[in-house]
From TrEMBL, chains A, B:
The keyword Ligase applies. It is an enzyme of class 6 (ligase). GO terms for molecular function: ATP binding; catalytic activity, acting on a protein; proline-tRNA ligase activity; transferase activity. The lineage of its organism: Bacteria, Bacillati, Bacillota, Clostridia, Eubacteriales. This is Proline--tRNA ligase. Consists of three domains: the N-terminal catalytic domain, the anticodon-binding domain and the C-terminal extension. The keyword Acetylation does not apply.
């Protein structure tokens, strides 16, 4: 190998320093690049292609449920942001303000949207007249800005990409139904596409969205035992409708307020994929979200016929899988390491001897298993293997999550788990915000959610001993 | 019909007041809604679905040529914007400035991207090392902001959606080739998908992009005879590379500057579709860009079996066309008018007598032609008709463009055309910016482009009489 070729350098081990491992992976697998814009990242082709697959698959699921896409302005006039009291209190401290347009100062400053409830409400107030205009089930794919002090690629950045659904309904029941429906869409997507099991539940009063009546969440467990809030769905009741005057005339010609919801997932999901599936060799992508599912690595590619065969295989495989050939002038060993770093689910090796024998070698990224497959069987075997990998990755993630989910029946047990183990802690809670805050202050663990699947293993709160109201998942979180 | 049902109101005739006709169409066909954010529009589902089809089809074409999608930050630090002199002069007067983040004033103010050359250059300066890293052929789909004083939906708004491609190449030849290649992608897309013929050519020095060596454009003619710049592709040479230090080591290990391009189209294309194809009944969408290609209108839908048949047809047609049923409780006549306003290419009427006869009526939006088609022939006839409509719309637009393209051999002729006729004026030009400015000051007509297909019908400039250098398309423009 020539000297100027880049080497695949080893990354920090995840056991040694998980945070550094994460940073190494996002950079070395070329998902992002740093920019001169503080707190903002450049999403490179390998990273953006994952987001495109998330968009494509999730958008199709949305549309099956009647969602229509729209686009609202990226700016919110200050007076609009201030219309809903809880909402402005929640967001005003972390927005970016545009004060000048062109060469003049603006009469009213505009914030760059941190989320668009206020814009959708303003729009719905003008657009909705009668019950015939309902429901409105709109969504937009866009970027939003929150002026975070500490940032990490995908997990917390000043600008991030997301989708935000905003709906308006005639009745409270319909709004609640939509809120839960979208949470289920997210949960199914995480499990079936990202191979990431999630806990579905409701946020506590303290943790709910600014302005919501109820916030539902899906919570996933990362490899280091920390939780990641992976998607949320909010029921606003008629609070925003009253603040913005979003009304409709019902069938009896009476004016009524609409009931609203909003729901979103972000590029954070890419951080989740990294932290749930990655290993010390880099990224490991579930097949359904892998921009390249099969990478063909020709062996002794200068020998006559090898590159031709690789290209012939690529062309055939492209009918049923996303496939590329790495025909660069790097050594096979280097290519193996590079494709492992990039998390490509299957590697196909083919060299002169394989060609003679009419076969190729398939290597799984997730567990390293190799097998020799006749060219004529690839069409059957590759899709099978991709399905198996997808399934195995979900099972592995679920096993890790289950092995790291603990039940704390006493405060001593709770503290012992937090200090000596890792993961989710299931515990009974009194429902009191002060108690919740005390738990967080003492242990760093916040309430992740009150799961839909409740258990009852004690009558009293794990912390204060008062009567228990809910079983809660606690955890340290991103 | 109940009183509270909305009526389809007549729109202003395009001959009477084209500007008002345009506004009526964008509102009544529900493409956009106004917002409380001055100069910004809300793109409603009917409008955004057109943009999604533009994105999908154009993005596929981009990727065929090797384009990869990425995402860069939406903010540009002032110091970055200022690095290329012509560029900052061109854009600084029309950008929005973020001066505060959260509760504090920023140390350096950030503009909201009006275009992202500076961000891509900054990124490439870090990301490109050797000739092996070239070419970079990146694109992003995003929104940009330009603080326009006068705004019109789709045509000129403070925020708009677009794609911006930014490429870096080893040689000047390769950069020029890519610049032209993308212009051709745009031109083919406009003709084949939007049914809109365009003139391809180069912008004059005065009209070129701030910081470019050469700007190429596609220019279309609207129904009112005004021109619309519909897409541009810029060759930057190594100007930006020198300003930002974007260098690579070549095969001889010598440092070289890259050569760059950028190219973009915007939601303006939706304005073009409206103004090229629309009529006094509203929008007319070319089938390839119509979110709904066939609208089924049941006649006497309360009669048994009608809605069932409509749904059965919808299900069958959905295999080969984008189809919906309008099963609302409005009258058929009202539905006809509404679907015409929305520009849906084909209407399918089906009522009890049709069902008995085993047939439906198909009505073309573009020319009103009706035909009766047996249910069993729909599968053949609908795709045929959609193709025919697509083709006829392109021919009609081309005929209108050609009938409104004039040749001016003298200044009197030029003025006569501008005053008494409409459309493109082909004329010989000396190449002098002062002369170009004088023509614009006297007539309101600007140079649209120096077309690739040059003609020579005079040796002297139409305005000043000096030796002619180029044949130019002039026109009043949006």
């Amino acid at each position: 190998m020539a000297d100027d070729k880049k080497k695949v350098e080893a990354i920090t081990s995840m056991e040694k320093d998980f945070a550094q491992w994460y940073t190494d992976v996002v950079i070395k697998s070329e998902l992002i690049g740093y920019t001169s814009v503080k707190g903002c990242m450049a999403i490179k082709p390998a990273g953006y292609a994952i987001w495109e697959l998330i968009q494509k698959q999730l958008d199709a699921k949305f549309k099956e449920t009647g969602v229509e896409n729209v686009y609202m302005p990226m700016f919110i006039p200050e007076s609009l942001l201030e219309k809903e009291k809880d909402h402005v209190e929640g967001f005003a401290p972390e927005v970016a303000w545009v004060t000048h347009g062109g060469l003049s100062e603006l009469q009213e400053k505009l914030c760059v949207r941190p989320t668009s409830e206020t814009l959708f409400c303003d729009f719905y107030a003008k657009d909705i007249e009668s019950y015939r205009d309902l429901p409105k089930v709109y969504n937009q794919w866009c970027s939003v800005v929150r002026w975070e002090k500490e940032t990490r690629p995908f997990l917390r950045s000043r600008e991030f990409l997301w989708q935000e659904g905003h709906t308006a309904h005639a009745t409270a029941e319909e709004a609640e139904e939509r809120t839960i429906q979208m949470l289920n869409v997210y949960a199914d997507f995480c499990e079936n596409v990202l191979a990431m099991p999630v806990i579905k539940g409701q946020k506590t009063e303290k943790e709910k969205f600014a302005g919501a009546v109820a916030t539902y969440t899906i919570e996933a467990l990362m490899h280091d035992g920390k939780a990641l809030q992976s998607g949320t769905s909010h029921n606003f009741g008629d609070g925003f409708a009253k603040a913005f005057g979003v009304q409709y005339t019902d069938k009896e010609n009476k004016l009524q307020y609409v009931h609203q919801t909003s729901w979103g997932v972000t590029t954070r999901l890419i951080g989740a994929i990294i932290m749930v599936h990655g290993d010390d060799n880099g990224l490991v992508l579930p097949p359904r979200i892998a921009p390249t599912q099969v990478m063909i690595v020709p062996i002794m590619q200068k020998k006559e016929g090898v590159l031709e065969k690789a290209e012939e295989l690529r062309s055939a495989i492209s009918a049923y899988a996303r496939v590329k050939v790495d025909a660069s002038d790097k050594s096979p060993g280097f290519k193996f390491a590079e494709q492992e770093m990039r998390g490509i689910p299957l590697r196909l090796e083919v060299g002169p001897r394989d060609i003679e024998a009419g076969q190729a070698i398939l290597v799984r990224r997730d567990n390293g298993e190799k097998e020799t497959v006749a060219f004529t069987d690839l069409e059957k075997r590759i899709p099978e293997l991709l399905d198996t990998i997808q399934k195995d990755m979900l099972e592995k993630a679920r096993a890790h999550r289950d092995a790291n989910t603990h039940t704390a029946k006493s405060w001593d047990e709770f503290k012992d788990i937090i200090e000596n183990r890792q993961g989710f802690i299931k515990a009974m809670w009194c429902g009191d915000t002060e108690c919740e805050e005390a738990i967080k202050a003492e242990t760093g663990a916040s309430t992740r959610c009150m799961p839909f699947e409740q258990e009852c293993f004690s009558d009293v709160c794990v912390h204060c001993g008062k009567p228990a109201k809910k079983m809660v998942y606690f955890g340290r979180a991103y």
